């Protein structure tokens, strides 16, 4: 079996990405730079490697950014179409809305912010073997409480959908990749926002549809929060997370050839340094995601943090578990810790934010 050329892929990329603000105020989440490429490019390369050529991007928020970058997809061996919602229709509405662009009888749907090594051909094979209406990729995680938990019976048939419960009955969670037959997709209501997780899946269970799970414990991460974005990016750089785009490029750090690195700077933990960025002498970057054009001055430390486009981090400043919005200017010796988020363009004076009392 495996994937037929006629299978369509739909990638949901219309969300506002509020949990990753302020970075998502200038770029949609799937276009944020991740290990040297927009995140979505890693996913599209995986779809292409699995043998699917026709991809529909279901867009809404900042829709134009996707088309400007990927065009008709021919540059990456794909045939990409765009279907845009003027008003966001939610994850279910976004799937329903692409119906007129579908060419095949079943469609693989992807959340545009999931990093995984799942075997797409095997998910589709399960769908065909089980004669399912919908098949979900389910992944086993150590702490399922923050996700949608999806129990299955001995035959793999889904028995319930439980969104974010404190006492999940199984460690299998909804991994954000589904196969829909066209008939199942047509059951999704039109003309209003619909959540696939909260409305479509529960109603398919109650109407007796055949909903199956394909379970694995491959690499999986939802990149929706700063912590996960930083971890996922570092895992890509270090070769822990799979991507067809990065074969042979893995290591402790990924530095764009146009970036400048000062003497004695230490770049470890899956750090990424973008185009034209400048890292000062003796700076220490551990699991840092440094976007294009940022400048990190001498002796500064950046750990597990995202540094936006054109940011300046002053000498001996410390950023740990932070998000620095585009164009912000962090003065010398400032300390930004534990989830601090600096909004785009904000300037902090030298020594202006401290967690310690040293001068
Ligand atoms: P948060 O605001 O941080 O929750 O992020 P989000 O808006 O991306 O929402 P979420 O992570 O739940 O979305 C999962 C996937 O669905 C992402 O790839 C989103 O881009 C996509 N998505 C969310 N809402 C919509 C929508 O209304 N329309 C479309 N087409 N896609 C959506």
Topology-level CATH name of the largest domain: Spore Coat Polysaccharide Biosynthesis Protein SpsA, Chain A
Strand content: 25-35%
Protein structure class: alpha/beta
Q: How many strands in all?
A: 30
Multimeric state of these chains?
A: single chain
Distance between the termini: 67 Å
Main beta sheet strand tally, sense and closure: 7 strands, mixed
Helix run count: 7
Radius of gyration: 21 Å
Averaged pLDDT, please? 94
Helix content: 10-25%
Strand order of the largest sheet: 5-4-1-6-11-8-12
Give the name of the CATH superfamily of the largest domain: Spore Coat Polysaccharide Biosynthesis Protein SpsA, Chain A
Count of the domains:
2
Q: List bound small molecules.
A: guanosine-5'-triphosphate
CATH class of the largest domain: Alpha Beta
So what's the overall shape? elongated
Residue windows where pLDDT falls under 50 for at least 5 positions: none
The assigned CATH architecture of the largest domain is Alpha-Beta Complex
GO molecular function: nucleotidyltransferase activity
Protein name: Mannose-1-phosphate guanylyltransferase
Domain Nucleotidyl transferase: 9-236
Keywords: Nucleotidyltransferase, Transferase
């Amino acid at each position: 079996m495996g994937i037929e050329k006629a299978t369509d892929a739909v990638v949901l990329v219309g969300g506002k990405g509020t949990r990753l603000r302020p970075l998502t105020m200038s770029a949609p989440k799937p276009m944020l730079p991740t290990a040297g490429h927009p995140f979505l490019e890693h996913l599209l390369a995986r779809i292409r490697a699995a043998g699917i050529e026709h991809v529909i991007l279901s867009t809404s928020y900042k829709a134009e950014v996707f088309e400007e970058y990927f065009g008709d997809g021919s540059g990456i061996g794909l045939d990409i179409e765009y279907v845009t919602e003027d008003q966001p229709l939610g994850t279910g509405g976004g799937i329903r809305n692409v119906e007129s662009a579908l060419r095949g009888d079943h469609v693989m749907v992807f959340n545009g912010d999931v990093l995984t090594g799942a075997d797409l051909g095997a998910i589709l094979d399960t769908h065909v073997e089980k004669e399912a209406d919908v098949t979900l990729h389910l992944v086993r995680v150590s702490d399922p409480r923050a996700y949608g938990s999806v129990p299955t019976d001995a035959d793999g048939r889904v028995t319930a959908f439980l969104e974010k419960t404190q006492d999940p009955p199984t460690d299998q969670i909804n991994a954000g990749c589904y196969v829909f037959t066209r008939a199942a997709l047509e059951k999704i209501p039109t003309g209003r926002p619909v959540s696939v997780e909260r409305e479509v899946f529960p109603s398919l269970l109650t109407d007796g549809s055949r909903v199956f799970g394909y379970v694995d414990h491959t690499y999986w991460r939802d990149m929706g929060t700063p912590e996960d974005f930083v971890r996922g990016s570092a895992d890509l750089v270090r070769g822990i997370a799979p991507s067809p785009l990065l074969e042979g490029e893995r290591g402790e750090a990924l530095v764009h050839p146009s970036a400048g690195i000062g003497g004695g700077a230490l770049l470890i933990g899956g750090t990424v340094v973008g185009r034209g960025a400048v890292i000062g002498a003796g700076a220490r970057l551990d699991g840092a995601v440094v976007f294009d054009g940022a400048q990190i001055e001498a002796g500064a430390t950046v750990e597990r943090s995202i540094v936006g486009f054109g940011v300046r981090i002053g000498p001996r400043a410390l950023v740990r578990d932070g998000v620095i919005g585009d164009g912000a200017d962090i003065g010398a010796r400032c300390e930004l810790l534990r989830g601090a988020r600096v909004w785009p363009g904000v300037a902090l004076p030298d020594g202006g934010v401290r967690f310690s009392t040293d001068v």
